[in-house]
């Protein structure tokens, strides 16, 4: 079901022919106000894939594309509370799987997959959550698709007319979660979170659990890429990926994360050079195809500087967000196998990178990297060529 929003303004003609503007401010605020999300800042927090059991990380990372209320962080927190990541669990009332769908609901949202299929659960959960968010918006706007709110309680059927604009209490996000737990009919009937102990505890429980699956806050807010430049677009894209994907040795293609090799063979994600290659391919609209490994990447583009240890303040002043730093073991030759790591410079002594196995895409200050390595800074353009 596609979500709908209230226009918030009803135009009507009075008997005398005068145009009467009736401004439905309550409906406008409830149904179309971005503050519904701003009041829940954890909804916008970056996803910490490392907190999710390894076998489910890539599935959860696929979510967050259907509606603004449902992000990988939200999905992970719900599964944590619903099933504790146990795909075969069956509740006392018959709910099954990671996302604890009742069989009747699964028949509508499961896409024909077995109810214990983890990926199918995760994808269905996102779709269903977003469907519920759309229904909540309709309730708030007084445009609910059903003429009545109906629910079952203690074996008895209850029903009353659908809400008018302004009658609903609560934010879209909270009411979406309550609908998942109690059913949208109950939320509609009570014009808000039903006064049931389980549901009243469910919503704050999910919010509290979301912190477990949220990446650390961004270190520095001083950098923001210029979308008119290749480096700036790479910075903006990298920022959007913080916390989303785990490190996977050999992982990453031009178009996204992938299974790696050796220790990364069971992990969908990026290694350091795979992430850099992905960023610049995407930022250039597919025009720039960097080599696969850090060593070869260090031999292409414009050499900005090379220093032992982190660049001085004067040297950093020559750098631009979107430059790429390569780290070469002391005594080794730059641009060979001795060049063992790479990170995107984003300004103010800060990088974004795929750091090592067991971590996710993250920010790191210069102080995180070896002061004995040779640090080489390269700048790429669409016309990037090999170093002499």
Can you tag this structure with a few keywords?
388 residues, alpha+beta, Lysozyme, endopeptidase fold (from Nostoc punctiforme), 2 domains, two-stranded antiparallel ribbon, 13 helices, 12 strands, disordered N terminus
How would you state the average pLDDT, rounded?
86
Number of strands: 12
Using the CA coordinates, give the radius of gyration. Answer: 25 Å
Order of helices and strands: EEHHHHHHEEHHHHEEHHEHEEEEE
Write down the CATH class of the largest domain: Mainly Alpha
Architecture (CATH level 2) name of the largest domain: Orthogonal Bundle
What this model shows, in words?
This protein is an alpha+beta fold and 388 residues long. It folds into 2 domains: 9-213, Orthogonal Bundle (Lysozyme), CATH 1.10.530.10; 230-379, endopeptidase domain like (from Nostoc punctiforme) (endopeptidase fold (from Nostoc punctiforme), Alpha-Beta Complex), CATH 3.90.1720.10. It contains 13 helices and 12 strands. It has helices at 25-32, 35-38, 57-61, 72-83, 103-109, 118-141, 172-182, 184-190, 197-210, 230-240, 272-283, 294-297, 313-316, and strands at 9-13, 19-23, 148-153, 156-161, 258-259, 268-269, 302-308, 324-328, 339-347, 350-353, 362-365, 374-379. A 6-stranded antiparallel β-sheet has the order 7-12-8-9-10-11, covered by helices on one side. α7 packs across α8 (184-190). It is elongated. The termini are far apart. The model is unreliable at 1-38 (pLDDT under 50).
